[in-house]
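Retro notes - structure team

What went well: the batch runner handled both jobs without manual restarts.
What didn't: labels got mixed up in the shared folder, which is why I'm recording both outputs here explicitly, each with its sequence directly above its tokens.

Job 1
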Amino acid sequence: MPETMPPETTQADSMRSESMPQSARVRWMIVITIVTVLIDQLTKVYAVSVLKGQPPQSYLWDILRISYAENKGAFLGLFGNLSETMRWAILVTGNSALMVGLLLYLTLGKKVNAWTFFTFALVFAGGVGNLIDRVRINAVIDFLNLGIGPLRTGIFNVADMAITAGFFMLVWQVYRGDEEGQSDSTSEPVAPPAASNPTA
């Protein structure tokens, strides 16, 4: 019988199956965090110096809107109506604990594949960018908005873009895992070898 050829392994499959060396994770974590936080904070400095107090600006047939906002809550203003003490406890103290736990897992975990690492490294870097705002001004600086007509996103920033990219990578990882699980469950069972006839 002809031999069954193994399925072709893509680069994405390799990223999700092979453990990433710890030294490489540490180096990439430093690079991703520094680059993301630097771009995020520089754009926020620009927003404060140029956009604050100005009317919203529209570009690309109103697909992109730029307007300054300070979000005291979390995503879409969640927790924004709480007292300042409660917001600090949840959004600064709580987020700081989560960031430390995530950092330890990504850099010290024994088996972390590349896909998982880059997914949560982006979430970590974006979280640090917004956490800096909360410590400095007890709010997050936002200034970007995308949409077509009435269908629009909330106002966001570069740190939010990193977090969203990590979220979509996580969704893709979960989807691929479910897809592979369904493929394994629907594959044809392998017939057991025929038993020898002792009377033959």
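Job 2
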Amino acid sequence: MYKPTLRIGLLAGLTAIVACSASEGLSPAPNADSKGSDTAVVTTGSKPQTPPPVVSSFTLSGVVSGHEPGLDTTKVEPVANATVTLVKIADVDGDTLKPSVTVTSATTDGAGSFRIENLAPAYYRIDVTAPVGSAYLDGVWGIGPARQSEVSVYIALRRKP
């Protein structure tokens, strides 16, 4: 008796997760058949949309910030003079480059902002080096081939321990 109850619980939990992630409303409620087990019908709604094509070139802009000390972990401050280095790690089809290629770098301004223009579509690693004497650790992020001409990122650096 324990195993059927466990299966029903798992089915109900999975059904709730799938139903809540669908873009449409919930499917009809499960109904019991003559043996007492539950049956659910789950629909996925409309077909997934095809993503837009990859652009021929794009601009990457962003802001580098750091978490301020204290109890409020949502407070951030701009990190000026951080170095943002863009490293091409794979081509647009996902073929890994060996070795990877450093494309360019930029330095953040007083507001922690940076901008890099005329980038070819590819997979990039974004290396952020905190300024010397900074209270923040360096960081690494990544982006895939751009599907719009302007891509913005918001990078938050962790505080040094």
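One thing worth noting from job 2: The radius of gyration is 24 Å.
We'll revisit the folder naming next retro.
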